[in-house]
Amino acid sequence: MLAGVVVVIVGEGTxxxxxxxxxxxxxxxxxxxxxxxxxxxxxxxxxxEEHFQGRPVLSEKEFGQHYFSPDRAEIAAKLRKILANxxxxxxxxxxxxxxxxxxxxxxxxDSMSTVEFVIEIEKEFEIKIPDxxxxxMLTFQSVVDYVADAVKSKTN
Length: 156
Description:
mainly alpha; elongated; 2 domains; two-stranded antiparallel sheet; single chain
């Protein structure tokens, strides 16, 4: 019989079981992983809820009109709709000052999804966003500002 080691990490503690058959390692690891994953998802949902608490629920159009000047409202509405295609959270209570990584958890996106997000913006507005500019866009407001300025300079 094969003997194995089972290591279970619980919070800040670690539990190690020695001398168990290999299948016990699997029998303990899979349920533990599923439980920890479930707890992490619930915790992230709670953080989002706390962050968005007290904010008005707005459609894309209302969002643009509520937070932006008339010349940027339509751009903001389109950008929020594009963002919604690339992130798995409800953006109806988003604020322009929300940071992509800290507030909207876009760090969870793989790099391909981030690239697709930028490409979709470029196609929608027929502009080019250099990598150096994209790296500086830390909030939704900064994306709206960049796109609005790029569209304005394109038409001039």
